[in-house]
Amino acid sequence: MYVRFAVAEIHERSQRCVGVFQALYRLRDAGKLHPYEEEHLRVVSEWFNAHLEKPTRFTAAKPAYYRKKSKAISWFRDTAHDHIAQIREMVAILESHGVSVRMLKTDRVGYVVYEDEHQVVAEPFSDVHL
Predict the structure, then answer these.
(1) What does the domain layout of the chain look like in residue ranges?
(2) Which of 37, 48, 51, 113 has a Cα-to-Cα distance from 89 of 20 to 30 A?
């Protein structure tokens, strides 16, 4: 089972719901986060940088990847308890600003282009609209 936390806004490339970090960065860039929330976002972002591998691919396309639009989205494995707990802290900030966040669950993430112990990155199947 895989989980993802997302808001209702649709991402222009993937055509799927925007993830928590993108939603928070958009609020921050719009000047809507309180200073303590910005600091908490920075701390959690650093935690993820230290505890989650950066995916090496975001497309199922063959080389040259840079010419292809990335449609892949990231999912946590349901066993990534510490990572999910950190994301829930970010969800709390979004919800305190009136942004509704859904936890999506699936066994069918799509065409997997990257995976590690804690996450998978996949291009969604066209018949699945999570």
Answers:
(1) 2-123
(2) 113
Please answer whether residues 84 and 103 qualify as being in contact, where contact means their C-beta atoms are separated by less than 8 angstroms: no
CA–CA dist 75, 31 (Å, integer): 28
**pLDDT tens-place string over residues 11-46:** 676 667 889 999 999 999 999 999 999 999 999 999
pTM: 0.84
Query: Which candidate, 73, 20, 27, places its Cα nearest to that of 44?
Result: 20
Phi–psi pair at 27, nearest 5 degrees: -65, -45
Of the candidates 103, 101, 97, the residue with the CA atom closest to the CA atom of residue 27: 97
Three-state SS string over the chain comes to: CEEEEEEEEECCCCCCEEEHHHHHHHHHHCCCCCHHHHHHHHHHHHHHHHHCCCCCCCCCCCCCHHHCCCCCEEEEECCCHHHHHHHHHHHHHHHHCCCCEEEEEECCCCEEEEECCCEEEEECCCCCCC
What's the CA gap between 41 and 19, in Å, rounded? 14
Strand 2-10 with 17-19, pairing: antiparallel
Give the chain's largest Cα–Cα span: 43
